[in-house]
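Good morning N.,

You mentioned wanting to compare the apo and holo forms, so I went ahead and generated the holo version with pyridoxal-5'-phosphate. This is what I fed in:
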Amino acid sequence: MSIAQNIEEIHKKIDISKVKLVAVTKNHGVSAMLEALAAGVTAVGENRVQEMLAKHPAIQAAGRSAEWHLIGHLQTNKVRQAVPLADLIHSVDSERLAREIDSTAGKLGKRQDVLLQVNIADEDSKFGVEAGQALPLARLISQLEHVRLCGLMTIAPFSETPEAIRPVFKETYQLYSELKLLKLANTEFNWLSMGMTNDYQVAIEEGANLVRIGTAIFGSRQY
Ligand SMILES: *Cc1c(COP(=O)(O)O)cnc(C)c1O
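and this is what came out, ligand included:
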Protein backbone atom coordinates (compact mmCIF):
# COMPACT_ATOMS: atom_id res chain seq x y z
CA MET A 1 0.00 0.00 0.00
CA SER A 2 1.07 3.57 -0.57
CA ILE A 3 1.98 5.99 2.20
CA ALA A 4 -1.29 7.86 1.59
CA GLN A 5 -3.29 4.63 1.88
CA ASN A 6 -1.47 3.69 5.07
CA ILE A 7 -2.32 7.06 6.56
CA GLU A 8 -5.92 6.68 5.51
CA GLU A 9 -6.05 3.32 7.31
CA ILE A 10 -4.69 4.87 10.48
CA HIS A 11 -7.13 7.77 10.23
CA LYS A 12 -9.94 5.19 10.20
CA LYS A 13 -8.70 3.79 13.49
CA ILE A 14 -8.05 7.01 15.38
CA ASP A 15 -10.17 10.10 15.92
CA ILE A 16 -7.84 12.84 14.77
CA SER A 17 -9.96 15.48 16.44
CA LYS A 18 -8.80 13.96 19.74
CA VAL A 19 -5.51 12.23 18.97
CA LYS A 20 -2.56 13.82 17.21
CA LEU A 21 -0.65 11.61 14.80
CA VAL A 22 3.09 12.16 14.62
CA ALA A 23 4.52 10.44 11.54
CA VAL A 24 7.89 9.06 12.56
CA THR A 25 10.14 9.73 9.59
CA LYS A 26 13.50 8.59 10.94
CA ASN A 27 15.50 6.70 8.34
CA HIS A 28 13.06 7.72 5.62
CA GLY A 29 13.85 10.27 2.97
CA VAL A 30 12.40 13.64 2.20
CA SER A 31 10.21 12.33 -0.64
CA ALA A 32 8.47 9.91 1.74
CA MET A 33 7.96 12.78 4.18
CA LEU A 34 6.46 14.95 1.47
CA GLU A 35 4.07 12.16 0.54
CA ALA A 36 2.93 11.93 4.14
CA LEU A 37 2.48 15.70 4.43
CA ALA A 38 0.47 15.74 1.21
CA ALA A 39 -1.73 12.99 2.65
CA GLY A 40 -2.73 15.06 5.66
CA VAL A 41 0.01 14.47 8.20
CA THR A 42 0.80 17.68 10.09
CA ALA A 43 3.52 16.54 12.47
CA VAL A 44 6.72 14.62 11.87
CA GLY A 45 8.93 12.89 14.44
CA GLU A 46 12.67 12.41 14.26
CA ASN A 47 14.80 10.66 16.82
CA ARG A 48 18.13 12.15 15.81
CA VAL A 49 18.98 15.85 15.77
CA GLN A 50 21.32 15.37 12.82
CA GLU A 51 18.54 13.97 10.69
CA MET A 52 16.16 16.74 11.65
CA LEU A 53 18.79 19.31 10.69
CA ALA A 54 19.27 17.71 7.30
CA LYS A 55 15.60 17.35 6.42
CA HIS A 56 14.21 20.59 7.77
CA PRO A 57 15.55 22.83 4.99
CA ALA A 58 14.55 20.30 2.32
CA ILE A 59 10.95 20.29 3.50
CA GLN A 60 10.92 24.07 3.57
CA ALA A 61 12.45 24.25 0.11
CA ALA A 62 9.63 22.03 -1.13
CA GLY A 63 7.17 24.61 0.15
CA ARG A 64 5.77 22.42 2.92
CA SER A 65 5.60 23.03 6.61
CA ALA A 66 5.27 20.61 9.47
CA GLU A 67 5.42 20.49 13.22
CA TRP A 68 8.79 18.99 14.14
CA HIS A 69 8.83 16.61 17.07
CA LEU A 70 12.08 15.39 18.51
CA ILE A 71 11.25 12.00 19.97
CA GLY A 72 14.64 10.39 20.58
CA HIS A 73 17.10 10.78 23.40
CA LEU A 74 18.65 14.24 23.36
CA GLN A 75 22.24 14.75 24.45
CA THR A 76 22.99 18.07 26.08
CA ASN A 77 25.64 18.82 23.46
CA LYS A 78 22.98 18.64 20.73
CA VAL A 79 20.54 21.02 22.41
CA ARG A 80 21.89 24.06 20.65
CA GLN A 81 21.10 22.52 17.28
CA ALA A 82 17.77 21.03 18.30
CA VAL A 83 16.01 23.96 19.95
CA PRO A 84 15.83 26.29 16.94
CA LEU A 85 13.93 23.63 14.96
CA ALA A 86 11.93 21.57 17.42
CA ASP A 87 8.29 22.39 18.09
CA LEU A 88 8.06 19.74 20.79
CA ILE A 89 10.86 17.81 22.48
CA HIS A 90 9.43 14.54 23.87
CA SER A 91 12.49 13.27 25.67
CA VAL A 92 13.39 15.49 28.61
CA ASP A 93 14.56 13.21 31.39
CA SER A 94 17.07 15.10 33.49
CA GLU A 95 17.56 18.40 35.25
CA ARG A 96 20.74 19.00 33.31
CA LEU A 97 18.99 18.60 29.97
CA ALA A 98 16.07 20.78 31.03
CA ARG A 99 18.42 23.56 32.15
CA GLU A 100 20.40 23.37 28.94
CA ILE A 101 17.21 23.68 26.89
CA ASP A 102 16.13 26.61 29.04
CA SER A 103 19.34 28.54 28.52
CA THR A 104 19.42 27.84 24.77
CA ALA A 105 15.77 28.80 24.31
CA GLY A 106 16.35 31.95 26.35
CA LYS A 107 19.10 33.08 24.00
CA LEU A 108 16.78 32.52 21.04
CA GLY A 109 13.90 34.34 22.69
CA LYS A 110 11.90 31.14 22.46
CA ARG A 111 9.82 29.18 24.90
CA GLN A 112 10.51 25.51 24.21
CA ASP A 113 7.64 23.06 24.60
CA VAL A 114 8.75 19.78 26.12
CA LEU A 115 7.43 16.51 27.46
CA LEU A 116 8.88 14.63 30.36
CA GLN A 117 9.92 11.13 29.33
CA VAL A 118 9.02 8.54 31.92
CA ASN A 119 10.17 4.98 32.08
CA ILE A 120 7.32 3.15 33.76
CA ALA A 121 8.46 -0.33 32.84
CA ASP A 122 11.83 0.55 34.37
CA GLU A 123 13.93 -1.19 31.77
CA ASP A 124 17.63 -0.54 32.16
CA SER A 125 18.16 -0.06 28.46
CA LYS A 126 15.78 2.85 27.98
CA PHE A 127 15.90 6.52 28.79
CA GLY A 128 13.37 8.37 30.89
CA VAL A 129 12.87 9.00 34.58
CA GLU A 130 11.19 6.48 36.82
CA ALA A 131 7.70 7.31 38.06
CA GLY A 132 8.93 8.49 41.45
CA GLN A 133 11.23 11.08 39.88
CA ALA A 134 8.57 12.57 37.60
CA LEU A 135 7.05 14.99 40.11
CA PRO A 136 10.32 16.53 41.36
CA LEU A 137 11.54 16.99 37.79
CA ALA A 138 8.17 18.43 36.67
CA ARG A 139 8.32 20.95 39.52
CA LEU A 140 11.80 21.95 38.54
CA ILE A 141 10.90 22.39 34.88
CA SER A 142 7.87 24.47 35.83
CA GLN A 143 10.28 27.01 37.30
CA LEU A 144 12.29 27.42 34.10
CA GLU A 145 11.38 30.57 32.25
CA HIS A 146 12.04 29.41 28.72
CA VAL A 147 10.67 25.88 28.89
CA ARG A 148 7.01 24.92 28.93
CA LEU A 149 6.13 21.49 30.23
CA CYS A 150 3.28 20.08 28.13
CA GLY A 151 2.88 16.52 29.36
CA LEU A 152 4.46 13.08 29.44
CA MET A 153 5.96 10.66 26.96
CA THR A 154 6.72 6.99 27.38
CA ILE A 155 8.11 4.20 25.22
CA ALA A 156 6.56 0.90 26.18
CA PRO A 157 8.67 -2.25 26.06
CA PHE A 158 8.28 -4.13 22.80
CA SER A 159 5.79 -6.96 22.92
CA GLU A 160 4.25 -9.20 20.27
CA THR A 161 0.99 -8.80 22.13
CA PRO A 162 0.11 -5.16 22.80
CA GLU A 163 -2.37 -6.35 25.44
CA ALA A 164 0.59 -7.37 27.57
CA ILE A 165 1.72 -3.76 27.89
CA ARG A 166 -1.67 -2.27 28.65
CA PRO A 167 -0.69 -1.97 32.33
CA VAL A 168 2.27 0.23 31.36
CA PHE A 169 -0.07 2.61 29.52
CA LYS A 170 -2.56 2.57 32.39
CA GLU A 171 0.13 3.47 34.86
CA THR A 172 1.51 6.23 32.65
CA TYR A 173 -1.97 7.69 32.24
CA GLN A 174 -2.46 7.67 35.98
CA LEU A 175 0.80 9.54 36.52
CA TYR A 176 -0.16 11.99 33.77
CA SER A 177 -3.54 12.63 35.41
CA GLU A 178 -1.97 13.18 38.82
CA LEU A 179 0.54 15.69 37.47
CA LYS A 180 -2.12 17.45 35.41
CA LEU A 181 -4.28 17.91 38.50
CA LEU A 182 -1.46 19.75 40.26
CA LYS A 183 -1.73 22.60 37.75
CA LEU A 184 1.91 23.52 38.18
CA ALA A 185 2.78 27.11 37.33
CA ASN A 186 3.73 27.80 33.71
CA THR A 187 2.81 24.33 32.53
CA GLU A 188 0.21 23.33 29.97
CA PHE A 189 -0.14 19.71 30.79
CA ASN A 190 -2.17 18.53 27.81
CA TRP A 191 -0.23 15.86 25.94
CA LEU A 192 0.29 12.21 26.68
CA SER A 193 2.63 10.79 24.05
CA MET A 194 2.48 7.00 23.95
CA GLY A 195 1.79 4.35 21.35
CA MET A 196 3.74 3.23 18.27
CA THR A 197 2.92 0.99 15.32
CA ASN A 198 2.43 -2.15 17.36
CA ASP A 199 0.52 -0.76 20.27
CA TYR A 200 -1.06 2.58 19.44
CA GLN A 201 -4.64 1.38 19.63
CA VAL A 202 -4.16 0.05 23.14
CA ALA A 203 -2.31 3.25 24.09
CA ILE A 204 -5.23 5.39 22.87
CA GLU A 205 -7.72 3.24 24.77
CA GLU A 206 -5.67 4.00 27.86
CA GLY A 207 -5.60 7.75 27.30
CA ALA A 208 -2.84 8.62 24.82
CA ASN A 209 -3.62 11.72 22.75
CA LEU A 210 -0.37 11.82 20.79
CA VAL A 211 0.85 8.72 18.97
CA ARG A 212 4.19 8.25 17.21
CA ILE A 213 3.83 5.98 14.21
CA GLY A 214 6.55 5.05 11.74
CA THR A 215 6.39 1.54 10.34
CA ALA A 216 2.63 1.48 9.78
CA ILE A 217 2.99 4.55 7.56
CA PHE A 218 6.32 4.11 5.79
CA GLY A 219 6.99 0.39 6.01
CA SER A 220 9.99 -1.08 7.73
CA ARG A 221 13.15 0.98 8.08
CA GLN A 222 16.40 0.17 6.31
CA TYR A 223 19.37 0.77 8.57
C1 LIG B 1 11.03 4.80 15.95
C2 LIG B 1 10.20 5.37 17.03
C3 LIG B 1 8.79 5.32 16.97
C4 LIG B 1 8.01 4.68 15.83
O1 LIG B 1 8.11 3.30 15.88
P1 LIG B 1 7.26 2.37 14.87
O2 LIG B 1 7.22 1.07 15.57
O3 LIG B 1 8.00 2.32 13.59
O4 LIG B 1 5.91 2.97 14.72
C5 LIG B 1 8.08 5.92 18.00
N1 LIG B 1 8.70 6.51 19.04
C6 LIG B 1 10.03 6.56 19.14
C7 LIG B 1 10.65 7.23 20.33
C8 LIG B 1 10.83 6.00 18.14
O5 LIG B 1 12.17 6.06 18.26
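Strands lie at 20-24, 43-46, 67-70, 88-92, 112-118, 147-154, 191-193, 210-213.

Happy to go through it together on a call whenever suits you.

Best,
F.
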